[in-house]
Amino acid sequence: MGIDYEFIYNFSEELLNLDSSLRWIGISNKYGVLINVEQREGLNPLMSEEESEEYAAAAVSRYRTRVKFQSKIGKLNYAVGRYENVTRITVPISNDYFLLLTIDKEKNYDDLINKIIIPFIAKNRNKFHFEDTSD
Questions:
Q1: What is the pLDDT of residue 74?
Q2: What's the distance, Cα to Cα, between the start and end of the chain in Å?
Q3: Model-level pTM?
């Protein structure tokens, strides 16, 4: 069974509508390839599609680097980069899929992640067990 793109789309859309501070959502496979991107309506993107793809590949690569220390420091729950114009968040959904987000810089990202994003992922995680045939 291949990727359920309808599920991925619906997951992204539903998540995007959970909080008005969410700007951009990307779902990436384990290779850093974006399989879906959604953004807030009316948003002027800060990065091009190509730059977003490069960001996804780099975010997954950083995650893979951190995994080698997992036995000593524990599993990564999420990673945050706070920039002048936006906050970026990477959350592993499973070993094969990653949620990449940007949010408004003013938003308290800790509450958003722990009270909205992680519970939403937990509710849907079992649906991410399909075979990725994009490689």
A1: 93
A2: 14
A3: 0.89
